[in-house]
Design goal:
Oligomer: homodimer
Number of strands of chain A: 6
Number of helices of chain A: 8
Order of helices and strands of chain A: EHHEHHEHHEHEHE
Radius of gyration of chain A: 18 Å
Shape of chain A: globular
Helix content of chain A: 25-40%
Strand order of the largest sheet of chain A: 2-3-5-4
Largest interface: A-B, 72 and 72 residues
Largest sheet of chain A: 4 strands, antiparallel
Strand content of chain A: 15-25%
Chain lengths: ~190, ~190
């Protein structure tokens, strides 16, 4: 599919309000079918995603969002919870069949934690790029009560929330002025 | 710039060996100028990147890589260290000038740690996509001695390594068979 770097990077903006247009199942599937190919450490693929779309689920989610994130989240037709499976290594016999990769993690909670957090976050980057590639605007957020959100969506599972991302057609009237970025010399060196 | 989703996702592969072609400064700058626009929490932008290209710097890097990652890293014309600045909040007056965002983090080491790790990893996802958009192949790796690498590249700074990524034109002869990904139903739910 033809896209542009402007669409996924230079001209894409974080949106703070969304217009009413719904997002259908096929688009959410297409989003996953793109992002799933992004590489993760040992193909661990720890990200788990809940696409919150029904009024009932949205209301559970809103109860966990910080006050400043409630209205924008209410306005989004879909809000994705990017979670991480803290038992991701149980799926490694399926995901990395040529190695005994499950044994690399068993009994190593700190390694499981850092691998799940790092790689589900990297997958979060793929998620945002893939959504933009499909013409969706994003509004990623870290401002929520993680314990409350996890109790509402992941109780009794090995999944924990990482971050949350509104999806839809952004309302240009609610954009903030664009914040600056670090210059190459501030962020990078060539050694 | 026109690109395709196949180029950044479906058909892109993790490479384990690289052909000799060098990568010039202009391409490394272009890579950063794309990825820098990807959103981060509060525009925190904690990723710091060292592009390791000189033989002297490469030799310091190789000494920190796990044995299985040494040869592929040696073959790459450039290896990027994706680091994270644990004092990223010092730059928030510049990056988020309309808020007193620096004060949200001061004296909160756990919040600094999770924000730096999550957001530099998300930026790592943007980095890989941006490299592929420019026609570079990637070989991201977590297998290295972080303490040794940090001592060799970040001594006396507030930066710590997150992960490492080989860059260049991949050698198709050294590709592994592609590992499977989780089905939509295994990784996602629509609530």
């Amino acid at each position: 599919m033809n896209i542009t770097t402007e669409q996924i990077f230079d001209r894409a903006r974080t949106h703070n309000g969304f217009l009413g247009e719904p997002i259908d199942d096929a688009t959410l599937r297409q989003l996953y079918e793109l992002m799933k190919w992004g590489p993760t450490s040992g193909n661990s693929s720890p990200a788990r995603i809940v696409f919150v779309r029904s009024p009932e689920a949205k209301s559970r989610l809103l109860a966990a969002m910080n006050p400043g994130n409630v209205e924008k989240t209410r306005s989004a037709p879909v809000t994705a919870i990017i979670g991480m499976d803290m038992a991701f290594h149980e799926k490694l016999p399926q995901l990395l069949p040529h190695a005994d990769a499950k044994s690399w993690f068993e009994g190593k909670p700190a390694l499981i934690e850092s691998t799940a957090f790092r790689n589900s976050s990297i997958q979060g980057g793929y998620f945002i790029v893939a959504a933009r590639a499909l013409g969706l605007d994003c509004g990623p957020m870290s401002g929520f009560d993680a314990a409350k959100l996890d109790a509402a969506f992941f109780a009794g599972t090995s999944v924990r929330s990482n971050f949350v991302c509104n999806l839809g057609r952004g309302d240009p009237a609610k954009l903030f002025p664009r914040s600056p970025r670090l210059a190459f010399e501030e962020a990078c060196t060539i050694a």
